Amino acid sequence: MAVAGPASIGATTGAVRLADVGTPFALIDGRRLRRNIAEMQSALEGIGAALRPHFKTHRTSEIAQLQLDAGAIGLTVATVPQLAKARAELACPVLISSLLQLGAATAPDLRAACAGGEVTFAVESEPSIEALRRALGPDLEPEVLIEVEAGCLRSGVPAAACPGLARAAARAGLRVVGVFSYPGQSYLPGQAAGAAKDELAALEAAARELRRAGVEVRHVSAGSTPTMPFARGGVATEFRPGTYVFGDRQQLHLGAMAREQLSLTVVATVVARHGDRVVIDAGGKALGRDAPRWLEGFGELAAAPSTLIGRLYDHHSVIESHDGQPLAIGDRVAVLPNNSNSVMALLRSAWLSDDGEMAQELRPQPDR
Length: 368
Fold this sequence. Notes:
alpha/beta, 22% strand
């Protein structure tokens, strides 16, 4: 499959020199990014499944368009503002997979985004069905997927509850068209293979229950980036990974991605040094504060992986000891963050580059 996107970001109109961009900023390797997009698309086509990637990872129309051009059937979003952006700028089918707190403030934007159709919603209880119905008003007849609990123990229902929810949805004027789940337990070391197996078993049982109740199941939606190496055909019609476009330190240590696939780093400047203690200008508002119990530190230096971000403040972080080339005040360093989703939610400065010298600015949507 041909890799989507321009041959050289550096040749793009409006490109600037990275040396002129103030730190901290997210730097995305364009070649790795496009390779990740193409490889995931090809892998899922190989097992007869579709790709509906999660928009919340990158929050940009530019990267979403690369995914759609490569063959994605649509996007997954987590919030009403993400839905509005995706529908307005990309006009593609969208699944809003998060259970929403819907009220008077969000309802107008929600109805406007849904006016053209091609928007599917998550439900997992009668109250969630009722809330969605109230927010959408009486005129829209949206399609919904029932969320199935598959081991994450967050939200979702057992397979046996799906027919009852489908009947409740029908009474409210919503059309159940399938099921989905989130295998969040895959974010623990050694759990991804089991999480993938458990998820597909739960989805298969839920789809079977719905078909027995007379519901046409068009969509069986699965997946997270850690479970994608274990994706199999035959049950899921589509998968919804997001972080695969960038990777991060979690994906690396979980074994979901290799170091040569990682496409996002946070570029920071050394602003102080006292012996082995180095301070950089990227703190929690740039790197995020994700620190799983099983993963030491808040990030690592891309050029010296054993050098960890040990302490985190709002706008600074501290490297207690550095293993590699000595660092001086004014030096720039590339940090591999624990969670690239958090970086793109927090940083308003993100740049896409093919050569590490010239770059095109991206504008991630703020997290709200």
